[in-house]
Each structure stands twice: as structure tokens, then as C-alpha cells.
Task: structure prediction
Amino acid sequence: MERQLNSTETGFGDVRENYLSICERVAEAMNAAGRSDKARIMAVTKTVAPEKINFAVGLGIDLLGENRVQEFLDKRDEYAPAEVHFIGGLQTNKVKYIIDKVSMIHSVDSMRLAEEIDRRAASQGKIMDILAEVNIGGEESKGGVAADKALEFCAELSELQHIRLRGLMTIPPPGCSEKCFADMQELFEKLKARQTDKNALIDTLSMGMSGDFETAIKFGATIIRIGSGLFGYRKYL
Ligand SMILES: *Cc1c(COP(=O)(O)O)cnc(C)c1O
Result:
């Protein structure tokens, strides 16, 4: 069967090897950082065929990351059971398609988006876990709130009744890895220390991808988001 989505040449055996090697590297990085908590491995599934995603779930992956609404809707019926988080840029008018299908949204960077998530969650009778996305590198073209506005934004978010703020997410620009991750850790610690926010349970720092997850772990990442390092390279981003 031909599948447009399956754009990589990586076979299933490679996925197994990649996964084992990532697990080992995560354990080493956790050790080196002296951490005894957990860093969860998320498999980022864009462009990956459901068969391969399910193979990864069979290996022990229990968290999937989706960043395209339409692709997710097209593929999700074929997925083996796993927790799914939405990690991509999200248009307000698309919230309704995913609100009952994911357990966390990592990419919340405006009150307008947060209010729509809150409204849709309320109509489902649920509370949606979210992360505030921070544009830690200050890049103009990127999503996320500015670092110096992040804590204020988090305070505003936690006024909403049907979302629960769980922490922060970032995609640092290439070349800024140590400094950006260190800055994120500092923000995250400040957010955790703040007791005033109402609808918040701050325990999640989502950062680190295939090329930099060890550095992210060093600076406290609790979810690392791995795409190409697990499934092979993809044709489009
Ligand atoms: C694609 C993507 C990843 C994974 O990137 P890799 O470098 O392939 O590991 C992580 N986070 C987000 C938001 C992505 O879009």
C-alpha cells in the first residue's frame, strides 16, 4: 500500500535501535544531572505512518506528540492506544477538532487561544491541561510569548476555570541550546515557586528534541519531544 505520509526510509528495526539508544542516552543524561525524577519520551509523529507509530508504541512509547490538526484527524483512528499531546501551532478555529482527543496542549501562547480552549473544554465538561509556550530565543517569526512576559501570561492563564496550567514548553533556536535551556529552567523554577496561581499544577517542562535532548535534560526537561531521532528524517518540517 502506498502512503504519502511515510516519507522516511527508516525501517522498523531502525526504530527499535533508535528507541533503545535514546532510552540509554536519557538514562545517562539523567544520571549526569543527578536527577531521580522522570523525563518522559514523547514520539513526535508528523509525517510518520500509523504502522510505524504503532510499532513505537509496542516498544514502550506511551506518549505521542501531534502538531498538525488535519494529519492527526486523518491518522488517529489507526493508532494503538497511547496518550496524545498537541504540540504544534494551533489556530483558534481548530481547537474544537482536538479538544476531546488530546490530554495536553503544549503550544498555548495567547489569551485568545487559551480562552477558546477554556470555552471548548467547558462545553465538554472537562479541564484541559496546557503548557505556556515561551519564545526563549526571542525570534520574531516564532510562536510563544516573550520570556519577560511569560510569568505574567501564566498568571492570566490560571484565571481560566477549564484549563489547568501544567508548566512551560519551548523550541529554542539552533545555536542557543545551553543558554536557552538554562533560561527556561529559571522561568520554570520561578513559576513553580509561585503559590498564587489558582488553576495550576506546575510539574511539566517540555523541551529538547532529537538534536539537543541531553542538554534539555541537564536543565530539567520533564518531557522531551523526539521525531527524527526515532523515526528517521522527514521530507517536510
Ligand atoms: C517536529 C517537532 C519536534 C521533533 O523534532 P525532531 O528534531 O525531529 O526530534 C519536537 N517538537 C515540535 C514542536 C516539533 O514540531
